[in-house]
Fold these 4 entries.
Entry 1:
Amino acid sequence: MADPILIGGEWKPGRGPDMVSIYPADGSENGVVAGADAADVDEAVAKGRAAMADPAWRDMKPHERGGLLMGVSRLISERHEELARLQMRDNGKPIGETRALVASAAGTFRYYGAVAETMEDEITPSRGPYVSMSIYDPIGVVAAITPWNSPVASDAQKLAPALAAGCAVILKPAGVTPLVALELGRICEAAGIPPGIVSVLPGPGSVIGDALVTHPDIARVAFTGGTEVGRRIARQAADKLMPVSLELGGKSPTVVFADAKIDHAVNGVIFGIFSSSGESCIAGSRLFVQRGILDEFTAALVAKTEALRIGDPADERTQMGPLVSMAHRDGIERYVALGRAEGGEVLTGGARPEGSGFDYEKGSFYRPTIFAGLPNDARMVQEEIFGPVLAILPFDDEDDLVAQANDTVFGLACGLWTEDYRRAWRLARRIDAGTVWINTYKMFSIATPFGGLKESGTGREKGRQGIRQYQEQKALYWGTNETPIGWAD
Ligand code: NAP
C-alpha cells in the first residue's frame, strides 16, 4: 500500500501512479508513495487559496509566522539523524553530506523565521501633502519545483522564504526523491503551519510540474533543475505573465594560477568536482591550470583523486556514494565515451569501480574521472554532465583564461586559486558567474544571495531579499491635506 501524500491539508492517496524510491547503493526499495495527478493539483491550489484567505494565516503577525518557522527549524534539528538517513537512502549521498544538508535546512528555516520577524515596510520620500509607503503582501499560492540532488536543502530554500512571506506553497519534489519532501510536510504540520498552507505533491514533472506552472491560480514558480525544463517553464510563465525564479545548470570553471598554494588548490578542486559525486549544479567541472604548472598540478590531482573512498553511503568515511540511478549513470557513461571519441585522454577513472570493499555491482557507482587533451569547445567540456567528470585545460594568462572560462552558455559559479589578491579581484569581476569563490569552493551562507547568469538561471534565492520574490510590493499614499484637493474647485 502506497504512503499517502499531503494534498491541501489532508494526508491521502494521490490520484496519479505510485512513485517508488530506490536506494541507489544497492537497488533496494525505500518505499512507495502515492503520486499526484492534475486533479490533486487543482485541489491543493484551491485549498491553498482558501487557507491563505483564512484569518488564521492571513492576519498572523510576521513575528508569529517567524515563530512557526523557528519551530519547523527545531523539529528538523530534533529529527536530524533520521532525516539525514532518509535523504541518504533517497539519493545515495554519503551520510556526512546528508547530515550537512539537513543542518542547512534547519538553518534556512531559522534564518527566514528571523527575516519574517525583522523585514520592514518602507516610508518613501513624499513629494506632496501625503505620507507614502511601500508595503509587501504575499504574492499568492506558489509552486516550488525541486531536483533530486539535494532535496532537503533545496526544498527548505523555497518553502521557508515563501512561508515567511505569507504564501501557501505547493512543493513538487523530483520523481526519484519524494521521501524527504513529504517529511518536511509533516514537520510543517507538526510545527503548527495551518492545514492547506503546505501541500506536497510527488508526481512526474511532465504532469504535476506542468499542471502547476500553467495553473491560473499559481502566482509564482520557484524552480531548480535543468536548463531545458527551466526554459520551458519560462515560456509558459510568459503566457501567464507570471514571475519565475530559475536556478539552472552549470559547467563551472575552477582556475589555478602558478602562484596558488598547490595543496589548497588540489583539495579544493577535488572537493569542487567530486563531492556529491559531481551531482551538483555548482560542480567545478572545467579546470583551467596555468600552463607552467600543468604537469605538476595534474599529477598531484590524479594521485589524490585515486585515493578517494567510494562505496557505502552509510559509512562515515565514504567520500563518494553511488550516482542517483542506473539511468543517470548510463548518461554519464555516454559522456565519457563521447569525450574519448572527441580525442580526450582519460587520466583516471572512466569506469565503474571494482574491488572487494563493497558490492559495487548492485549500485550505480562510477569512479571519479579526469580528462585531459580536449579543447574548450568539445561537447564533453561544454555540456553539463552532472557527474564525477572533470576536464583539465591549460591557459596562458588572464586574458586567455577569461576568454576560455566565459566561453560557455552557463554562468553559475567559479573558483579562483591564486595568492595575488589584486588578480583575484580583477578576475572575480570579469568572469561570468553568479558566485565566485576565491581560495575556497562550495562554501555557502543562507545570508548571501545565490543564482546564475546566462543559461544558469534568473533570479536569486537566499538572503533577506529572498522573501521578496514571494511578495508583491504595493504603494500606499496617506493624504495629509488640511483642505480639499484644489483642482476640483
Ligand atoms: P530536471 O529534470 O530539470 O527536474 C527538476 C524538477 O523539475 C523535477 O522535480 C522534475 O520532475 C521537474 N520537471 C520535469 N519536467 C517538468 C516540466 N515539464 N514542468 C515542470 N517541472 C518539470 O532536473 P534534475 O535532473 O532533477 O536535476 C538536475 C539539474 O538541476 C541539473 O541541471 C542541475 O544543474 C540543476 N540544479 C541547479 C541548481 C541551482 O541552484 N542552480 C541546484 C541543483 C540542481 P521529475 O523529477 O518528476 O521529472
Entry 2:
Amino acid sequence: MQRTLSIVKPDGVEKGLIGEVVRRFEKEGICIVAMRMRRLSRREAEGFYAVHRERPFFNSLTEFMSSGPIVVLVLEGDDVIARNRALMGATDPKKAEKGTIRADFAGNVEKNIVHGSDAPETAETEIRYFFSDLDLVW
Ligand code: CMP
C-alpha cells in the first residue's frame, strides 16, 4: 500500500475541475484519505517547490501556485504514485497521452491542472508539508 500527494492547482479549481479530478481517482479505485481546500501564500508555494528553486520557471510557478485556491489530497492504494502519474499524463500537456487529465484540460506546461508526487520519498515529504497524521483517515 502506497500514498501520494495530489494537488488540483489554481487553474484546475478555476476551470471547475475538482469534481472531474476526484471522479477519475475514484473511478480508478484510488482511495482518498485526506482532502482540503486552501490558498498558498507565495512563501508556502516557494517552500513546496523548493527543489525547483534554481529553475528558470520558479518565480512564475510560485506566483501561479499562490494565485488562487488549490485542493490538496492524499491518495492511497497499490502503486498509487505511478497510477496517479498515469492518470495525470506528462508535465507538458502537448506530450501527455490522450485521455489523461493534462491532455484533456491543461493549458500549458506550467498551468497543468494537477500535481502528483514522483517517488515514495517525495510523497512522504509532500504529504507532511500539508497534513499531519491526525488529518489522514485510516
Ligand atoms: P508539477 O508536477 O507540479 O512539478 C513542477 C511544476 O513546475 C510542474 O508541474 C509545472 O507546473 C511547472 N513546470 C515544469 N516545467 C516547466 C517549464 N518548462 N516551464 C514552466 N513551468 C514548468
Entry 3:
Amino acid sequence: MLALITGASSGIGEAIAKRFIQEKHQVILLARRKDRLEKLQSLLGSNCLEIIDCDLRNIQEVQARLQSFLSKIDVLINNAGLALGLEPFYKSPKQNYQEMIETNILALVELTHFILPSMIANQKGHIINIGSIAGNYPYPGSNIYGATKAFIKQFSLNLRADLIDQNIRITNIEPSLVGGSEFSLVRFNGDEQKAKEVYANTTPLMPEDIAESVFWCASLPSHININRLELMPTTQAFSPLRVIKNPT
Ligand code: 8X3
C-alpha cells in the first residue's frame, strides 16, 4: 500500500507513518515543518517516497507536488487538523475559527476532491479521516472545533453513500483524549503547563493507539468498510448533562 498522510510531522500522523513503514508499506508525508519531515524521512528509510513541506491550505502547491504520485496512492489519511482555544465562541478571535475551518474542513475537502478521481479510475482506494469524539458530543469550548469534526464525520458517511459502486472505502476515526502529541499545546497557544494538565494523573490514548486503529482499518480485507470508529481511554466516559440551579 502507498499511504498519503497529512499532518505527518508529529503526533498521530507520525505514528501512522511509522506503523505503515513497520509493515513494509510506502508513505508520502505532508506537513508544514520541513526539518521535522526530513528527520522522519531519514528514520523511515526508502519506503518514505516523498516529503511535501507545505501548508495544506495552499491547495495549488499541494496539487503540483502530488501530481506525479496521484495514480499510485492507495490510502489517503486526512489527519491534519487543529483545535485553537477553549473559550466560548463569542470570545474566540476570528483568526482562530477561520484557521480551524480552513484546515479541518476546506483543506481536507480540497485534497479529497483532488485525490478521489484517480482512486475512481483505479477502482480502489481508502480514505481515512481523523475525526474526533468532539464531532459526536458537545462540550464547553469545543464550538467550532467540534463542529468541524462533525462535518468530517458526516462528509465521510456521505462519501460512502456516493462511492458505494466504486470499491472505495471511507472511514472516520474518532479519538478522544490523545496524549503524546502537540494537540493541547496548539490548542492553548504554546502554554506548556496548561497542555500538560490535560493529561496529568490519567492515562490518555497515545498516538500509537490511533495509528493501530488506522492501520487495522486499512489492512482489513477489501470487502470490509469500517464506517466510524470511536476511541476513548478507559479512564474517560460520559458525564451527566449540566444543569444550572437558581438561574438569574
Ligand atoms: C480531540 C479530543 O476530547 O479534546 O479531538 O476534543 S477532545
Entry 4:
Amino acid sequence: MSRREMMKAAAASGLVSMSMRAAGSDDEVAAAPAPSARVSRFEGLAFGMFVHWGLYSQIGRGEWAKHMQGIPTAEYMRLMETFTAADFDGRSYARLARRAGMRYITLTSRHHDGFSLYDTGGLSPYDVTHTPAGRDLVRDFVDGCRAEGIVPMLYCTTLDWSDPRFDADFDAYLRYLRDSVEILCTRYGSIGGFWFDGNWSRKDADWREDELYALIRRHQPEAMIINNTGIDAMGRAGHPEIDSVTFERGRPSTLDRRGAPKYVSGEMCHTMNFHWGKATRDFNFLSPAHVIESLCLCRRAGANLLMNLGPEAQGGLPAYESAAFGVVGAWIEGIGGASSSLYRGRPGVTGDGEDFGLSTDDGVDLYVFDLTATANTDVHGPARRGPGRRTFRGVTGEIRDVRWFDNDESLTFTRTDDGSLAIEATGYPYGTNTVVRVARARR
Ligand code: GLC
C-alpha cells in the first residue's frame, strides 16, 4: 500500500495519528465531524481522577492479585468478611479532585475480581451488601461528587474472574453484565460516563455491545461511553457508539478526524506508580512535575488525562497521591484555575519540541517546556533547552502583548518570515519553577 492509500484507509476507519496526517494530502479526505454536546462537555472536563478500589486493596499487591497469584475464588472472597470501608468517604475524594483541578472521578464499580461496590440486588453474591461495610459505596461516591460539583463516572469490568458464567455460559454472563449496568444507570441519578474494560481479554468474542450501549443511551443519554482498548491498541476506535478512545499508560496522539463517521474524544489513563490498585511494595511513583507535563501533553493532543490513585485497604485516601495531586492543583491555580485554557483552550498551535499553545477567544496561552533541568539533575539531558527563543506555529491574529502568568513579566516577541510567533522565553525568577511555564499572548 502506498502512504496515500494507507492514509485514506486509516481516515476511513476514523482515526489516524498525527504523523500520518502530515503525510497525506488534504483535498482527498472529507471534513471532520463536529463533537456532540456530550463529547464537548467531556473534553472541557480535561482532568479526572481514576479510583481503583476493591477487595484487592486489602492485599496491597495490585488489582490483579487474585489472578497473578492464582487465589481461588472461595478463598479470595473471604476478603469480603473484613471489608469494612470504614475509611471511605466519597466526598473526601471529590474534595481532593476539586483541589487538584480535576473535574471528574471514575470509580471501579466492579473490577475483574468480580466484586461490586454497590448492591447488585441479588445478581451476584460478591457485592458490598455481603460485607460489614453495610452501605452502598457507589451511592456514597456519587453523592460525594455531586456535593462538590465533580462529575461521577463509573468503571465497569467486562472481564470477570469469579463469575462461573463468564466461562460456562457467556450469554448468561452478558445478561448479568447488562443487568448490572442497568442498575448503575437507574439508581444513582445522572452519571457522567461508563468506562468499560476487559473486552481485550476475548478479542474474538461477540460482546453484544449494541445491547449494552443501547441500554445506556436509553437511561442515560448524556453519559459518555468508553471501552478501554487496552495497552496494545491505544487510540483505536471500536464500536460506533463509543464516545472516546483510550490511551492506557501511553502518550496520546492528536486524532485526525477527517472523514470519520463521528467525532470521538481521547483520554489517557495513567497510574501514579506501576499498579492501579494499592501496592504497598511499589515505590515507583511519578512526581507531580511528571503529572504536570503529562497533563499538558494530553491537552496538546486535545485529550483528557485520567490520573489514578489506589485507595488504602478500607477506602482511605492514599497520602502520596493526595499530596502530589494537590501540587498539580496548585500549578493549575497559577495559570488561571477554573478559567484556565487547560479546560477551554483549543489545541492546534504547535511549538518546537513539546511546546504548544491553547487558543481562547482573546488570545493564545503558550505552554513552554524545559526551561530548566528536572528537579533530579542526574536525569536531565540535552533535551532541557533553557531560556531563549521559542517559536509557535498557528497563532493567528495580531498579538499585542505576551506575558508570563506567574510574574506578569512582559516578553519580547516577533513574527518570523513564515508567520510563526517567536517569543524570547526568560528564565524563572529565583523562588519559582513551574515545570511547564505558561505565557499569555493577547490579541
Ligand atoms: C487494564 C487492567 C486493569 C485496569 C485498567 C485501567 O486494562 O486490566 O487492571 O483497571 O487497565 O486502564
